[in-house]
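Example for tutorial group B:
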């Protein structure tokens, strides 16, 4: 009878491990779908608003001003791809005085 008990213990452990593995590997929803859809709607709205403002200003801007605005938008997109703001890119790697990359005022603890 003792030998039967020693055979049942690993069998119960294997069944428990199978149930745990099935539970741990189940497909879970992250809930990001709604927030990603909202973000996409926000981006679309901002692009549309920018395009409308650009179209309204196009009649009053000179050719050089439109070219400068296009260059600024291109720089902003390039900076966004790199994860920085356009102002930070224009400023370069040095940063402002109050940024983490800027000069330190006073002693460092």
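The residue assignment follows.
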């Amino acid at each position: 009878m003792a030998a039967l008990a020693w055979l049942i213990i690993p069998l119960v452990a294997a069944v428990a491990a199978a149930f745990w593995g099935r539970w741990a590997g189940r497909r879970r929803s992250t809930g990001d779908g709604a927030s990603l859809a909202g973000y996409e709607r926000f981006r679309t709205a901002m692009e549309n608003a920018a395009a409308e403002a650009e179209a309204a200003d196009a009649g009053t801007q000179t050719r050089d001003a439109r070219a400068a605005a296009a260059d600024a938008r291109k720089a902003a997109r390039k900076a966004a791809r790199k994860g920085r703001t356009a102002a930070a890119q224009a400023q370069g790697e040095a940063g402002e005085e109050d940024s983490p990359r800027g000069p330190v005022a006073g002693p460092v603890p």
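The first helix runs from residue 2 to 24. Compare this with the pattern of hydrophobic and polar residues in the output above.
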